[in-house]
Amino acid sequence: MGRFFGYGFILQVIALVHFIRRRPENYWLWIIIFFGGLGAAVYIAMEVVPDLGLLQVSMKGVSRRKRIRMLQAMIIDNPSAGNYEDLGDLLLEEKQYAKARDCFDHAISSRTDHVDPFYRRGISAFELGDASAALSDFERVVKNDPKYDFSRAQLFYARSLAATGRKEEASAAFEKLLSASSSTEALLSAAEFYAEQKRTKEAKELLERAINSVASVRGFAGPRHS
User: Fold this and answer.
1) CA pair distance 127, 121, nearest whole angstrom
2) pLDDT of residue 225
3) CATH number at residue 101
């Protein structure tokens, strides 16, 4: 372990350079800085190593864009809700959030009785910075199924509440999220919110839980306590 932590600074530099270039979720910056070499190593395992497979991802992207063009052509003759929803899903994967949102707008009608298009439209709106519109969609989803998409709907609901300044409701939503999910994404998102609310102890505890969870899966030793 001593040798591992001897390389901690180098790992932090590598992680920070990648973070600046790729700009993933902000909570990774907390992990890199406050958990030193171990946090940087976890970041590299979770964010840098997958980037080494970008060629494979690129090939998938080519196939996805081909399917997008096919659906765009189909919609001209058959502008059905299903075609718009399928196209919206693909555009969301491509991170073309504005176009995806427009597709889900077309897919949703007053008779829509399933929550998935609302959920995915909410994600599109959230990623575009329109948290108020996103919140409306996520409210609909979590009222129907709080654990939708492995509780990610609840996660986005909590984040949207926070982004619209409804901090007390966001706090309650994050607590409900943590009671239902122990995913790394849930732990880190809640930790980021708690840190912003100056609830430092709770934020640190969640960060350590997330670090230990990822480290155990990736084969690192977790943070030591005195």
Assistant:
1) 10
2) 46
3) 1.25.40
Q: Which domain holds residue 108?
A: 55-113
DSSP string over 123-158 = HHHHHTT-HHHHHHHHHHHHHH-TTTTTTHHHHHHH
Indicate the pTM of the whole model. Answer: 0.79
155-168 as b/e: b if 16+ CB within 10 A? bbbbbbbbbeebee
**149, 119 in Cβ contact below 8 A?**
yes
Distances (CA, A) of 224 to 142, 187, 208, 217: 38, 19, 10, 17
- Name the residue among 173, 169, 161 with its Cα closest to residue 137: 161
Per residue in 137-169, pLDDT (tens digit) is 999 999 999 999 999 999 999 999 999 999 999
Q: Which amino acid is at 119?
A: Y
Q: Is residue 10 part of a domain?
A: no
User: What is the longest distance spanned by two Cα atoms in the chain?
Assistant: 68
Residue 201 lies in a domain: no
